Hints:
The complex is a heterodimer of chains A (303) and B (404). Chain A has 303 residues and is mainly α. Chain A has 11 helices and 4 strands, in the order ααααβββααααβααα. Chain A has helices at residues 2-32, 39-56, 65-95, 104-125, 150-172, 174-184, 186-191, 196-222, 229-244, 249-269, 275-289, and strands at 130-131, 140-143, 146-149, 224-225. In chain A, the strands form 2 sheets. Chain A has a two-stranded antiparallel ribbon. A two-stranded antiparallel sheet of chain A has the order 2-3. In chain A, strand 2 and strand 3 (146-149) form a beta hairpin. In chain A, helix 1 packs antiparallel against helix 10 (249-269), helix 5 crosses helix 6 and helix 6 (174-184) packs across helix 8. Chain B is globular and about 70 Å long. Chain B folds into 2 domains: 31-167 and 302-373, Response regulator (Rossmann fold, 3-Layer(aba) Sandwich); 168-294 and 385-401, Rossmann fold (3-Layer(aba) Sandwich), CATH 3.40.50. Chain B has a 7-stranded mixed sheet with strand order 9-8-10-11-12-15-16, with helices on both faces. A 5-stranded parallel sheet of chain B has the order 2-1-5-6-7, with helices on both faces. Chain B is an alpha/beta fold. In chain B, 42% of the residues lie in helices and 20% in strands. Classes of the chains: A mainly alpha (303), B alpha/beta (404).
Amino acid sequence: MHAFLDQLANGIALGGIYALIALGYTMVYGIVELINFAHGDVYTLGSFFALAILSALGVSGELHGVALVVDITIAVVGAALLCGIVGVLIERLAYRRLRGAPRLAPLITAIGVSFVLENVMMIWKGPAPVSFPEVMPNPAFVLGPLTVSLKQLLVVGLALALMAALHTFVKTTALGRAMRATAQDRDAAQLMGIDINLTIALTFLIGSALAGAAGFVSGVYYGSTWFFNGFGAGLKAFTAAVLGGIGNIAGAMLGGFIIGIVEAFSTWLVGGQWSNVAVFAILIVVLVFKPSGLLGQAVTDKV
Amino acid sequence: MQLHPFVRAAAAACAVLLAAGCAGGSSAGPTGSTIKIGIDLPLSGTDATVGQSTLNGAVLAVEQANAKGLPGGFKIELDQLDDTVQGVHNPQQGVTNARTFISDPNVLVMLGPYNSNVGKAEIPVTNAAGLTQISPATTADSLTLGADAAALRRANPVNSFFRTCTTDSRQGSAGATFAQHLGWKTAYIVDDNETYGLDLSSVFAADFQKAGGKIIAQDHLAANTQDFKSLLLKIAAAKPEMLYYGGVTSTGGGLMRQQMFDTGLGSMPFMGGDGIVDLATVAGKAADGTYFTVAAPNAEKLPSAQTFVKDYVARFHEPVGPYSANAFVAAQVAIAAILSAAAENKGALPTRAAVLAKVAATDMPSAVGRVRFDSAGDIRNPVISLYGFKNGKEAFIKQISLPN
């Protein structure tokens, strides 16, 4: 029971990170039908930005009280904002001109952007994993047989809060309505006076900002970051988005948590080398039997 | 007649091309007074630190030989190539590099690689071409021993691969002996599913059990993962006295060690082979409490290596790396073989086959002791050193000389 709950808590924390990344995949796909393979690298970039912000703030050890809250907030918001800007730039420079092109062209461009980002990060921080400062204490909370750490609560709490905020934004604000309209029918939305370019840029801004926040959280949770992290995490988050139903925000979140739990449990019960197999087997099974995903609507011409 | 400088340069280039064409076409072996020794190592990426200090050993040997002046007016050139792709040593890149050396008729010996999986890909290529390859650091058994090694040499029955380090079975045995000394009776093994990691961990497991220890379980790491906590929680539940890691820092060793502290395993002894010599570059202070074996003597503690150590520090202004002395000796073996084959060839550049025969028959004193190869290409009477980490720095513990 102990082991089960420990693995579950770890799987949910891991899933929280995947879910935050998956949101960006799903939003971008929903609105421009592009699988943005550079998104995983934007996530890694978020951890690099957070690291740079923390060192600019002079943080090298554990923080307490007000300083902890202030510095962490600055790092999260800063990393998210910078990643959002990078996302908008990527869309503007690499994808916008290809909006009317055949589907394959932007897809290949996305892979190219991914290589560019990876190599920029490798030049920036070097090819080896980089240590993250231990910014926060990590006390464990014991509730009967369940033990959760503060860092796990931070990961899951931030993921849920950001998702709730995103959901409210998309459902209640005018800009959110514009996003939904653009996703449904771009031409009709344009005829209704919606600025398509602005709406798509906004989607990239929000999606990339969420990845940036995920990057910060993963750095704090794992104590390190590496320029190549986004490759594996990105593919798993993409799987999560497909599992939940690509284009569906709640689905991405659900898929992220499921993928995280599957990874933790397959490592525990089957063996570490099988965790990737288990995760990507899900991708294949979903694509073959239920391409619309758990919460997605059946659409015939996608992917 | 006055020629325009550009025309002169072009004419010279044509002459060089013609000469090169002749060399390639004739059967008398390469001509010219430059002997090349190729060296393939991971020189960027995660393995860059150890790759560079290994390269330095070979550089020093070549510089010393050239400074001394070689008989026949030869000059030795070290031709270095990097086998890193996207930060990690890459077997395909290693093969590409080996082919580059093979296609250059002036390359008579190839040194390297550093990593066993790269070696596994390169050996069939160099063996088919009859190019002698001497590695200072690849320690996987399967490169020289057993059916796997025989398969690597299928193209050419004459063995052309040698190493100045010893094998993982020796490293794994030394690790098991050391663990017994420290009184650890139960171990959990994790490997990275690569040639090196699997060989190392299986020998450790066998010898650890032979000495009365108990292996609780063995697990393999998944590639491209960031999360080792699930695996570590599973290990924590099994309560072993130590964790043995068969693998290298870049395939998960460093991150796993770091995450041990988050899963309550910070104080558990963590031990591995020479693949984690650079653990502190990733794990930082978390490297403390880890132990590793190196399939080479600690040059600084060997009386025979004192001159080498002094020259190395004077030349590179940094301490000797774990495989620097092995690379120094590998290059010396190559140079001696080439010169002796050249002397028999009346001072002309020898063929690769002649150099290979000389390397196989090597018997010379060196910085790391007497160098002789057995029929498989492994060095006789190997020495293995044990290290630990203290305050994020590696600290020598002791070295043992193994019987042949």
